[in-house]
Specification:
It contains 19 helices and 34 strands. The strands form 8 sheets. Strands 1, 2, 10, 11, 12, 13, 15, 16, 17, 18 and 21 form an 11-stranded antiparallel beta sheet that branches. A 5-stranded antiparallel beta sheet has the order 9-8-14-20-19, with no helix packed on it. The protein folds into 2 domains: 286 residues, Beta-galactosidase, Chain A, domain 5; 389 residues, Glycosyltransferase (Alpha/alpha barrel), CATH 1.50.10. Helix 5 crosses helix 9 and helix 10 runs antiparallel to helix 12. The longest helix has 35 residues. Helix content is 32%, strand content 25%. The chain binds beta-D-glucopyranose. The site of beta-D-glucopyranose has 12 residues, from loops.
Length: 768
């Protein structure tokens, strides 16, 4: 474990004591978001130490021209990047003319950060001895409003402890920002207008190339001992920056505070000519409401998120803190109301992965959103890919595929591929399968088959076409093979017959054919429309059948397990337990070729297939494959521990399941992979939720019914979670000897518990 400074607490993330080395990691961990925008926990006041500045607006990106050593045909022209957006949180502070800068203070006492997840706010407090010997106590509270998602609020309080002083606050807006991650060191924003109106400041800027227009805005109010002051700020404007200066004299012990209201409005939600007005409207309503009322509103908004999404754990504070952190971050990142948006692997906590959409959404995030939000949220996530179908077809065409075959991008903002490492862009094609898995999961869970005739079937046909063209017949084997791929395990590239890829390809074809039959029978007019649109013929379907029947799966007679790929057994097989700690994580210690030659697996690969298609295999099969592959897995992708936790639980190995659970839930809090300063791992956080619900709770959908196989880790008194299942809410509480189910709904729900049918009547708790 790399770090251990976050204090255990049921509802808050706490840090105590200032350590400059931890600033960037804490900037990630204490990040804020409200689905529409987000920001790292950068200090408001100037900080000359190492910091990674980041504020982001959902959906606003820049196509950064691809930079590679050797250009390969088929590479995308650009990598879409979420942008560091104009800074509205900044407030520089001067005491008797000296800048408050935590990097230069003589002493910092009682430094404390709290991210209060229950109520949705972040607070930082400290007492600092400044170079001029003044002792200042500072407390800053900040939140991004869930209810008014264009607004953020800051309360910056200062008290000079050892004398009278002049305190100057300089709230500012700055659009002269850059990205940490930029291929050509270019600027991504062009400032269009810098405007002030009394105490209000507005900067309108547009992104280059994509031309998103965003107006950042601010207004502040000064308070002394809790009473509003009418201080006229002086104003300094630069090309890309507006600074207001509030100066006030305070006596020793007097508290002075600046309330700053700010945020963004963009042309994703307003007409361009209306942006200034829209920003003014946000300020009109929020400044008059004031900090306290807005904070109260925030608490209520988060209470209603938690009402449905919370998982409570009795008897294990670290486990509790972990899961709440994950649920909190997921809700900060994506709330599901806007089908244009999606869930970037780092959410609003960093720039890595470009804020773009990965297969993570379909493979890991859908179950969480499906069960903790209204059903239309998961449908929105599926629709996002339906809306990108034409682009996925274009993408496949660029690579030489035809006839409407689609390859969904590995990474995207707008449906176009933006990943540019050949072994992933061209070869990590298994991602196509996850699109179909997500559709199946949605239909099985919600019972809403209508998505398939309306949208899903077109996606499935295009994907089946891709697999048909990507597989080729091997005369030697008399089988269809898929050559030159990268499986989910990115520590092997350009391998032949990755079992997971071959398996999911066959399954996609089978599921598409089964869905076609059902649509033909039950949705005749949709069937006709889809055949007309796609030109699908019986001959083509005949070709699919042949591939499905003759797909090749590498298998080892010696170990009686499917092989990750054709030549896996040529590798030297040495379990991870024999690898010294000094060599790990191998992706930071070893050369790439050494990693590729080794038997070490980054994340679930064959086991990912056993996770998706668990019901195709026996428990003994799972056990054999788990025992073969897990010991070779280094779990250097955040997506890895959760799948293994679920499988260990299914095998009744609770100690191991618990270890993986802690690793997935505290991956960032404890920084297992030594990289949290780059941002948090948001998409795998949905995997943490699955580790409890599907792992410990054993939740599955079996023939349209919820089924449970509850288990509980040693030392836990109980845990509970809620599921929105087909518009009824089922609450599950698991304790060592009993599980209770309570239904908030109107119709009796028949569920399975350890395979036995149990009827749950509305509002009548049942204990098994
Ligand atoms: C994983 C991928 C994942 C990506 C984004 C990579 O490290 O190997 O499976 O899609 O991170 O989370």
């Amino acid at each position: 474990m790399n770090q251990d400074y976050i204090k255990p607490n049921n509802w808050s993330i706490l840090e105590e004591g200032f350590d400059a080395e931890r600033v960037e990691a804490s900037e990630s961990l204490f990040s804020l978001g409200n689905g529409a925008m987000g920001q790292r926990a950068n200090f408001e006041e100037y900080y000359s130490g190492d910091t990674f500045q980041g504020s982001y607006i959902a959906g606003v990106y820049y196509p950064d021209k691809t930079k590679v050593g050797w250009w390969k045909n088929g590479y995308p022209e650009y990598f879409a990047k979420v942008l560091n957006a104009p800074n509205w949180i900044g407030i520089n502070v001067f005491i008797n003319g000296e800048a408050l800068d935590l990097a230069t203070c003589k002493e910092i006492k009682d430094f404390r950060r709290e991210l209060n997840m229950k109520e949705g706010w972040y607070e930082r407090s400290f007492t600092a001895v400044m170079p001029n010997e003044l002792v200042v106590a500072v407390k800053v509270t900040r939140f991004l409003s869930l209810k008014r998602n264009e607004l953020g609020v800051i309360n910056y309080e200062v008290e000079v402890k050892n004398g009278d002083a002049t305190v100057i606050f300089e709230p500012y807006l700055d659009s002269g920002i850059t990205n940490e991650d930029a291929n050509w060191e270019e600027k991504f924003w062009e400032t269009l207008e810098v405007k002030t109106d009394g105490e209000r400041g507005f900067i309108t800027a547009k992104t280059l190339k994509t031309e998103f227009h965003a107006t950042s805005f601010m207004q502040s109010r000064l308070f002394k001992n809790g009473r509003g002051q009418s201080v006229e700020p002086t104003e300094v404007n630069f090309d890309e920056k507006i600074i207001f200066r509030y100066s006030t004299d305070v006596k020793k012990g007097e508290k002075v505070a600046l309330h700053k209201f700010g945020g963004y409005v963009t042309d994703m939600n307003h007409k361009r000519p209306d942006l200034l007005n829209a920003a003014s409207t946000v300020l009109d309503t929020s400044v008059s409401a004031g900090f306290e009322k807005l904070l109260q509103e925030q608490k209520e908004a988060w209470a209603s998120v938690w009402e449905m999404a919370d998982i409570s754990i009795e008897g294990d504070v670290k486990a509790q803190q972990g899961i709440r952190f994950n649920i909190f971050q997921l809700n900060q990142t994506y709330l599901g109301e806007d089908a244009r948006l999606n869930i970037g692997p780092k959410g609003f906590t960093g720039e890595k992965y470009g804020g773009s959409t990965y297969w993570d959404t379909e493979a890991y995030c859908i179950p969480f959103y499906m069960a903790t939000k209204d059903q239309h949220v998961a449908r929105n996530l599926l629709t996002y890919r339906y809306n990108h179908l034409d682009k996925a077809i274009e993408n496949a065409k660029k690579l030489g595929f035809s006839n409407g075959a689609a390859l969904y991008p590995m990474v995207t903002m707008n449906g176009e591929e933006s990943h540019n490492e050949w072994e992933i862009t061209f070869e990590e094609i298994h991602r196509n399968g996850a699109m179909v898995v997500a559709i199946k999961r949605y239909v099985d869970y919600t019972g809403d088959f209508s998505y398939i005739p309306e949208k899903g079937l077109e996606v499935m046909i295009a994907i089946a076409r891709f697999w048909q063209q990507r597989a080729n017949y091997s005369t030697k084997k008399d089988k269809f093979v898929i050559l030159g791929v990268t499986g989910p395990n990115e520590y092997e590239n350009n391998v032949n017959n990755n079992w997971y890829t071959n398996y999911i390809a066959k399954w996609c074809i089978d599921y598409c054919m089964a869905s076609l039959e059902k649509v033909e029978k039950e949705y005749t007019s949709d069937h006709k429309r889809i055949l007309d649109k796609t030109g699908l013929s019986d001959t083509e379907i005949g070709g699919w059948k042949e591939i499905s029947e003759k797909m090749y799966f590498p298998y080892s007679e010696e170990y009686k397990v499917f092989m990750q790929q054709d030549s896996f057994l040529d590798k030297e097989i040495i379990p991870v337990s024999e690898l010294s700690a000094s060599q790990r994580p191998i992706n930071q210690k070893w050369s790439w070729d050494r990693i590729l030659r080794s038997c070490y697996i980054k994340q679930a690969d064959v086991l990912q297939g056993f996770y998706f298609f668990e019901d195709h295999f026996s428990k003994e099969d799972l056990e054999k494959h788990f025992d073969f592959y897990e010991p070779l897995t280094v779990h250097e992708s955040s997506l890895s521990p959760c799948v293994h936790s679920i499988q260990a639980a299914a095998l009744g190995r609770m100690e191991q399941a618990y270890k993986f659970y802690l690793r997935t839930s505290r991956l960032d809090l404890d920084d297992y992979n030594n990289e949290v300063k780059e941002g948090c791992h948001i998409t795998s956080m949905a995997g943490t939720w699955m580790s409890i619900v599907e792992g410990f709770g054993g939740m599955r959908v079996v023939d349209g019914k919820l089924s449970f196989n509850p288990r509980i880790p040693d030392g836990w008194e109980s845990y509970s979670f809620k599921l929105n299942f087909r518009n009824q809410i089922l609450k599950i509480n698991v304790a060592p000897q009993k599980t209770s189910f309570t239904l908030e709904g109107n119709e009796t729900l028949e569920i399975l518990v350890k395979g036995n049918p149990v009827k749950v009547e509305p509002s009548v708790p049942v204990t098994v």
